[in-house]
Amino acid sequence: MSTKLKSLLALSSSALILAACQGQDAGNADGGADDTAQTEDVVDQGADDATNESTDGEAGGSGSVGSEDADFAIAMVTDEGGVDDRSFNQSAWEGMQAWSEETGGRAEYFQSTNSADYIPNFQQAATQDFDIIYGIGFQLEDAVSDMAASNPEQHFGIVDSVVEADNVVSLNFADHEAAFLAGAAAALTTEKDQIGFIGGIESPIIDRFETGFLAGVEEINPDIDVDVQYADSFSDAAAGQQIANGMYTAGADVIYHAAGAVGNGLFNETRNRLESNPDEKLWAIGVDRDQEDEGEWDGGNFVLTSTLKQVGTAIQLATEHAKNEGFPGGENIQYGLKNDGVDLVQGNLSDEAWAKIQELRQQIIDGELEVPEFSREW
């Protein structure tokens, strides 16, 4: 496999949490999509509630669901992508809203527009008696570490990183496994043998996506060219659109993004091109949540598939464990294909391609196929 362009350029578990994950149907991605749809019904209502209760905080504002008198309350601080990034942060907030709806607990988000907002948002949350405050994304690692050290009685959570402290639970995901399946799906679908990957910010987390994706493409056809580019952002949709434009112009017909709200630019560019030339065959692959709704256009839907990252589910499970069994402080809980922490939806994949994906999926779960996690030492 050749990479045409690359620019800008442990395992610990909680028995109750993993048992809850393993109780789900790991082989039914369509069922997972149904669950997502049901959750989104709750989320749509919750989003309205959060909007009605939003306030101008010291940083990027906040919103909440649930009663102020709830017996358990959780909060999250977003990364720069924001709570409505249609991806990573939104998945976390959707899970928190679903938890609030199911349990009667209170949930609140504190939105960050840049890294300068992280500490002020955590400080604001720490004054409001939340049982757990979650930092969403590896960019908040330092902020969580600092806040945990200065607030030893407050419980924190970090997603996509590890903070070694007794008052912090770390939630991590085998993103490379789902990305591998996305790479295989792209390779099975491309008609031009040219594929693109758009990353957000170069980091161990996004390298995991890139490495898995490239390995999946190579598993199907090592002669396919993959154009890898980074936006150096998780929020700049214009940069995403510019990168996608260049990739499509160079001949790519399938592009996967692991870039948060930057991916909205990919969707915009794909839609614009298809509306200008309906006979063109272009596909985008979503990330973190089923993003098929982003692919609607007059001629159908251009989102081929999406990798799922059950951030919201992980937060719900960690929260319920803390509420019922005690806070799992100091633990690093890993979620992968085997326990439904990550996955791929069928979306618009052909039945033939989906059958191959299911075969590869099972091989990974059974340990017959090992997916590389990183391209280099971090």
From TrEMBL:
Keyword check for Signal, yes or no.
yes
The record's keywords, sorted A to Z, are: Cell membrane, Lipoprotein, Membrane, Signal
- SUPFAM superfamilies listed in its UniProt record: Periplasmic binding protein-like I (SSF53822)
Q: Quote the InterPro entries the UniProt record gives.
A: BMP_lipoprotein (IPR050957), Peripla_BP_I (IPR028082), PnrA-like (IPR003760)
Q: What is the residue range of the signal peptide feature? A: 1-19
Highest taxon above the source species: Bacteria
Note the topology in the membrane: Lipid-anchor
Q: For the region Disordered, what residue ranges are annotated?
A: 47-68
A GO CC annotation recorded here is:
plasma membrane
**PANTHER family assigned:** ABC TRANSPORTER GUANOSINE-BINDING PROTEIN NUPN, TRANSCRIPTIONAL ACTIVATOR PROTEIN MED
Q: What family does the entry list?
A: Belongs to the BMP lipoprotein family.
Q: What is the protein name for this chain?
A: BMP family ABC transporter substrate-binding protein
Query: Can you name the source organism?
Result: Dolosigranulum pigrum
Q: What is the lineage of its organism?
A: Bacteria, Bacillati, Bacillota, Bacilli, Lactobacillales
